Amino acid sequence: PYNLSGCYQEHKERFLEVVKAQYEALTPEIFCLLFDDQTLDSESAGRVQHQIIVDALSLMPGVERFVICPTYYSFDPILEKLFGPRPEHYFTDLMDGLPDKVEVFWTGPKVLSPDITPEDLKAAEKVLGRRPFIWDNYPVNDGKNSSQFLNLKPFNGRRNLAGCCSGHAVNPMLECELNKVVLKTLALKYQGMPDDEINAVWEQDLKAQFGAGADILFEQLHLLTDRGLDKLNALQKAMLIAACELEDAPNPALEEIMGFLNNEYAFDPACLT
């Protein structure tokens, strides 16, 4: 409900009509109510959002999981820079008295967290009154800066989180096929596989995905993951595209790499972050 926090009473009836209609039409197992990426202009915003949650939840008694995203979904100072200062009692006003079934998305210590630790999640649990539901902003690459990279490396850190969170959702790259090998590395961490074994599986899977040009693409992977599209010269782009074209069979992952190199996944200025 974008910016509903400042005018809820005015639009309450219509909002709840829409929520009820959507719930009855879709009968979802999971329902998410998101207050992220919007400016709060009132110290009472947390209390208003609390009431919105209570009202919406009352309309869906059969929903199995009800997840919210607060406006401040990390302790990262960038959120206050983008959306204004967090009201002093925001988390208390938002969370106090909410049913236990309400889960809360949390991105970790940063909006784009390089690692998420049990200590990070326990700090969030203190203010939320429950274990957070991780919303992991790796390997997503739809931001102004992140759109210059293909985040193909394995997940970093993120060990021993199972007992500290209620769930773990991942925000993927725009390049759908290329996500698969990366996402597998997170699953292997939850299974307890050591990092050296994960890295071996990752390399094997990535080379299989790259096809006939795998050796070249893997050797030059740093150009895609670390150098960045805007720093590549014409010769480097041509070399990477030629390596992709060595594979004769249809290959969606290679098509995505070539699309990336041809700027088909350019940053959308409408994206807030």
Automatic annotation (TrEMBL):
Gene3D superfamilies: Glycosidases. InterPro entries: GH (IPR017853), Glycosyl_Hydrolase_84 (IPR051822), O-GlcNAcase_cat (IPR011496). Residues 1-194 form the GH84 domain. GO terms for molecular function: hexosaminidase activity. Keywords: Glycosidase, Hydrolase. GO terms for biological process: carbohydrate derivative metabolic process. Belongs to the glycosyl hydrolase 84 family. PANTHER family: O-GLCNACASE (PTHR13170), PROTEIN O-GLCNACASE (PTHR13170:SF16). This is Beta-N-acetylglucosaminidase domain-containing protein.
